[in-house]
Design goal:
Order of helices and strands: HHHHH
Radius of gyration: 22 Å
Low-confidence stretches: none
Number of helices: 5
Distance between the termini: 15 Å
Shape: elongated
Helix content: 55-70%
Structural class: mainly alpha
Number of strands: 0
Mean pLDDT: 90
Strand content: under 5%
């Protein structure tokens, strides 16, 4: 598997992030155009309104399809990193750490993880700043 680092750690799923998002956007644009044309032509508006509602439903589904698994992954990452911190330090993670910080900290090696956790909580480091501070990167190949 390819070595992961700050530059290449983000992963995109082309079918979801490009194809599905462009199709959903196209559906919204076309449905709004159809509604405008129906209103201007004094034609039947009900089918055009239904088309817009279908487009809105597709966009909502598009957003939910992504958000639910991410929330589940965030919960798993919080538990995994809390356990890792406990194994390394005999203490739970600082409650001040946000889920964004914890997901960024998961890339830190065991050697730098405890100190970076303390620094991130004390300085309220942004997730991107945490990732940039990591010297020995630990890849996460399971998250999309």
């Amino acid at each position: 598997m390819k070595v992961q680092n700050y530059v290449n750690h983000r992963r995109m799923h082309p079918l979801f992030h490009y194809a599905f998002s462009l199709l959903a956007l196209g559906l919204v644009v076309l449905s709004i155009m159809d509604l405008i044309n129906a209103i201007q032509a004094d034609d039947q508006v009900l089918p055009a309104v239904m088309f817009v509602l279908i487009a809105v439903i597709v966009v909502v589904i598009f957003l939910l399809i992504r958000s639910y698994p991410i929330k589940a992954q965030d919960r798993a990452i919080r538990a995994e990193e809390n356990l890792r911190h406990f194994v390394l330090t005999q203490e739970l993670l600082d409650k001040k750490l946000t889920i964004g910080q914890i997901t960024a900290l998961r890339f830190a090696s065991d050697e730098e993880f405890p100190a970076l956790c303390k620094k991130a909580a004390a300085e309220r480091m942004a997730p991107d700043a945490i990732k940039k501070a990591i010297r020995s990167w630990r890849g996460d190949h399971f998250r999309i």
